[in-house]
């Protein structure tokens, strides 16, 4: 300690502030710090600088003039005593702050980040929520935020890669980086443990998926669903309906019965329920109507076509209400994992729309008709001027596609050549 530090007084502090920005020690690591703007306002910070574990660290003790020189010296003395006991006072302060906002572990941080940063800004926040719930929280959710290290981040993404989900691994890495960056900006933690990781450390460069199920694979899928006792008829119907209707998973699984007119054989899908915010009337082929009638029995009076299986479930022995009034986004994925399909390469629910599109092309369906069946917009100039919805053509195409699926669901063969020629004739009408 210099002699000048020993004689520092409140008058000395005011003189320092009058001179402009200041960063001066007043003894034993206690430092008086003010920016140019703070100095003009007569305000500064008390910072204790110390070494812990061989590293230089800092702890903000408080603000001047709210905390006087005498009070700051006493608080610094208490912190130095804690340091001698092996307590990192800066980390302890952050931990107390996190506990005060219910964010003492990763799961708490994820919840706050999701609510503040994701829900207001993302069009589909549940995509992020699903990665947190399924892949981040089960691995590091209970870990104190300030104790997370790069090795923990690596553990999360390595597990996902081993589960053959490279795209999800990339999403998890991006979410972890943004989540911890969110905490660093607010000084809840000192550094970002996901910093330095690259996409190559997770799932690698993403290649557009091209997976689709061939006819023989659809046969194996149908057989696997019929022969697996715990798969369930409702899950089986959802698979055939997804394929037959060409819709996205949650467009189907969250649908209400009020959207359907079984007499007119049409499903009126509203803009609010589609990814592209584009309404579409989907014609219902006879096999689809039969599946829906059967499904209505399983729905047992629910307003949803696929109601939640259990309204209340237990989590760690505590009753919890379901997050959704309809089946969870994960229900079908988990059910499909129970199937043992011989000779069928791994596929996901997302591959079913690609399967429908490819199989319709094999049936000779016109590309504009097939694209509209998937509720895709016609691109470029033609999309601007061509507002025709191809309803009758889609009705014919989806009917033939559903007939093929219906036969496949029962394990029966079908004259695909005849279907192709019938579709071609319909296209010339």
Helix content: 40-55%
Helix and strand succession? HHEEHEEHHHHHHHHHEEEHEEHHHHHH
The mean pLDDT is: 85
Shape: elongated
Tally of alpha and pi helices: 19
Query: Order of strands across the widest beta sheet?
Result: 1-2-3-4
By secondary-structure content and strand pairing, the structural class works out as: alpha+beta
For the biggest sheet, the summary is: 4 strands, antiparallel
Tally of separate domains: 3
Percentage beta strand: 5-15%
Distance between the first and last residues' Cα: 97 Å
Low-confidence stretches: 1-5, 423-429
DSSP strand count: 9
Measured on Cα atoms, how large is the radius of gyration? Answer: 31 Å
Q: How would you characterize this protein structure?
A:
There is one protein chain. This protein is α+β, with helices and mostly antiparallel strands and 429 residues long. The protein has three domains: 3-87, Double Stranded RNA Binding Domain, CATH 3.30.160.390; 106-201, Orthogonal Bundle (DNA polymerase, domain 1), CATH 1.10.150; 215-312 and 349-428. It is 51% helix and 11% strand. The chain has 19 helices and nine strands. It has helices at 3-6, 10-19, 36-40, 69-84, 89-100, 106-118, 125-140, 150-162, 166-185, 215-227, 233-245, 249-253, 286-299, 331-337, 351-362, 367-373, 380-385, 391-409, 416-428, and strands spanning 22-27, 30-34, 44-52, 55-64, 260-261, 266-269, 280-283, 312-315, 318-321. Strands 1-2-3-4 form a four-stranded antiparallel β-sheet. It has a three-stranded antiparallel β-sheet with strand order 5-6-7. α11 (233-245) runs antiparallel to α13 (286-299).
